[in-house]
Amino acid sequence: MSELLSIQGVPLVGLYIRASEDYAVVGVRDEKVIQIVEEELEVKAIRTTIAGSELVGAMVAMNSTGAVVCRHVRQKEIEKISRYIDVRVVDTNMTCLGNNILINDYGAIVHPELDRALIEEISDFFGIKILVGTIGGIKTVGMSACVTNKGALVNPNSTEWEMKRLSDILKVPVEKGTINFGSDMVGTGVVANTKGYIAGRDTTGFELGVVEEALGFI
């Protein structure tokens, strides 16, 4: 059963939470949110900000190997996260790495303007192949899609070519859909791993059906 959630009255749950198979970084100090995340995704929640921001879903890219954050992260935040997972701090002006990297345990696609040397560093850290590209013509690929190790939900404007590249690099089936009553920026409105998912409060029943099919829950 899905859990519909708003955080501080906002249904953009993907901006406040970033999850892998075993952990989730949660940006808000809200025990109810943390409880829902841990129960629905079957993970340990790590409560912290990133670079002082509650929008940790936008700020951090992570999979089962670890997490990548920008150089503006604070030492206390690094210490809190690194108790549980490996953290790589990278030198980039593109601070919202969660918005600009779409990643699972098999591969990643990143914003086409991300520095090549940085892409190599991230690829080496995660031990995966990385492509540059867009999803639905959107460069902020982490906002335009949600991926797990079982499937991907992508912006409804995605082309067949984009979807084929995504499926090849992430090694999962890819489906188009929307979230939060028609939003095409699906990565902002759903958080998922292979064990469960949480969708924004405004998501319709039809949209939930598409999410569940795309992410391999039915």
Automatic annotation (TrEMBL):
One of its GO terms (biological process) is cytosolic ribosome assembly. One of its GO terms (molecular function) is translation initiation factor activity. Pfam families: eIF-6. The keyword Chloroplast does not apply. It comes from the Archaea. Gene3D superfamilies: L-arginine/glycine Amidinotransferase, Chain A. The keyword DNA-binding does not apply. Keywords: Initiation factor, Protein biosynthesis. InterPro entries: eIF6 (IPR002769). Binds to the 50S ribosomal subunit and prevents its association with the 30S ribosomal subunit to form the 70S initiation complex. Belongs to the eIF-6 family. This is Translation initiation factor 6. It comes from Archaeoglobus sulfaticallidus PM70-1. The gene is eif6.
